[in-house]
């Protein structure tokens, strides 16, 4: 039972445009969300996070938006660069106070020069 | 500062053989996680240690899988006997306590192929 779902396995975007990666979750008790980026032959690396008390968190070109009523979060990358081409995972702690994360299956982003 | 170190990076073995994957977490981190990544199931948590003690091993698929953490700087994941369906990328991750405790730092992974 996937509690964190990324329904788009892949996304292609032109360089300089906005990339929007989406994530849905089923557990309304989730109170913290993280995005990870993964290049081939490397482990996932932490990108950005958001607490459920916020609806937006920004870090440079990366912004995460959280819509709790819709149980939906999205990662915006503006402007997209070829180096952003990677697989992006969203994740959430399994429960309040848990250090264990449950991950979505990922979205492969390709930024076309 | 060295990140999470995993060895070997690649392992090819024959069905029935024992496989041992190794992990050195980031110094000072007291939580360690073993994950398996496959196309079908994505990233699955296998087992989680806190202060060298296994806390949750409900993700370990079968008794053929075992994990140990004899000290704060070393962990192993063993598969005995290995089967072709164990072929996957195995990641080790570590995290620290506190506000950043939810941020896990991953190693580069071990790509396992069981023939």
Structural write-up:
The complex is a heterodimer of chains A (113) and B (115). In chain A, 0% of the residues lie in helices and 54% in strands. Chain A has strands at residues 4-5, 10-14, 19-25, 32-38, 45-51, 56-59, 62-67, 72-77, 86-93, 101-103, 107-112. Chain A has no helices and 11 strands. In chain A, the strands form 2 sheets. In chain A, strands 2, 4, 5, 9, 10 and 11 form a 6-stranded mixed β-sheet that branches. Chain A has a 5-stranded antiparallel β-sheet with strand order 1-3-8-7-6, with no helix packed on it. Chain B has strands at residues 5-7, 10-13, 19-24, 31-38, 42-50, 53-56, 65-71, 74-79, 88-95, 105-106, 110-114. In chain B, strands 2, 4, 5, 6, 9, 10 and 11 form a 7-stranded mixed β-sheet that branches. A 4-stranded antiparallel β-sheet of chain B has the order 1-3-8-7, with no helix packed on it. In chain B, strand 5 (42-50) and strand 6 (53-56) form a beta hairpin. The termini of chain B are far apart. Chain A binds chain B through residues 32, 34, 36, 41-46, 49, 89, 93, 99-106, and chain B through 4, 31, 33, 42-43, 45, 48, 50, 56, 91, 93, 95, 101-109.
Which helices and strands occur, and which strands form pairs?
The complex is a heterodimer of chains A (113) and B (115).
Chain A: E1 4-5, E2 10-14, E3 19-25, E4 32-38, E5 45-51, E6 56-59, E7 62-67, E8 72-77, E9 86-93, E10 101-103, E11 107-112
Parallel strand pairs in A: 2-11
Antiparallel strand pairs in A: 1-3, 3-8, 4-5, 4-9, 6-7, 7-8, 9-10, 9-11
Chain B: E1 5-7, E2 10-13, E3 19-24, E4 31-38, E5 42-50, E6 53-56, E7 65-71, E8 74-79, E9 88-95, E10 105-106, E11 110-114
Parallel strand pairs in B: 2-11
Antiparallel strand pairs in B: 1-3, 3-8, 4-5, 4-9, 5-6, 7-8, 9-10, 9-11
């Amino acid at each position: 039972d996937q509690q964190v779902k990324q329904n788009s396995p892949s996304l292609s975007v032109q360089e300089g445009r906005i990339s929007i990666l989406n994530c849905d979750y089923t557990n309304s008790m989730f109170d913290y969300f993280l995005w990870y980026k993964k290049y081939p032959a490397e482990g996932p690396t932490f990108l950005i996070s958001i607490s459920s008390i916020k609806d937006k968190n920004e870090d440079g070109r990366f912004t995460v938006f959280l819509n709790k009523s819709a149980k939906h979060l999205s990662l915006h990358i503006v402007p997209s660069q070829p180096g952003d081409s990677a697989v992006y995972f969203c994740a959430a702690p399994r429960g309040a106070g848990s250090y264990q994360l449950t991950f979505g299956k990922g979205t492969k982003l390709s930024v076309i020069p | 500062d060295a990140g999470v170190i995993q060895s070997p990076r690649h392992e090819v073995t024959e069905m029935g053989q024992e496989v041992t994957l190794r992990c050195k977490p980031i110094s000072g981190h007291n939580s360690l996680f073993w994950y398996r990544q496959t196309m079908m199931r994505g990233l699955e948590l296998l087992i989680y240690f806190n202060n060298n003690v296994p806390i949750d091993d409900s993700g370990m698929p079968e008794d053929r899988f075992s994990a140990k953490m004899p000290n704060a700087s070393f962990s192993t994941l063993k598969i005995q006997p290995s089967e072709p369906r164990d072929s996957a990328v195995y990641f080790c991750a570590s995290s620290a306590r506190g506000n950043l405790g939810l941020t896990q730092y991953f190693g580069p992974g071990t790509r396992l192929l069981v023939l």
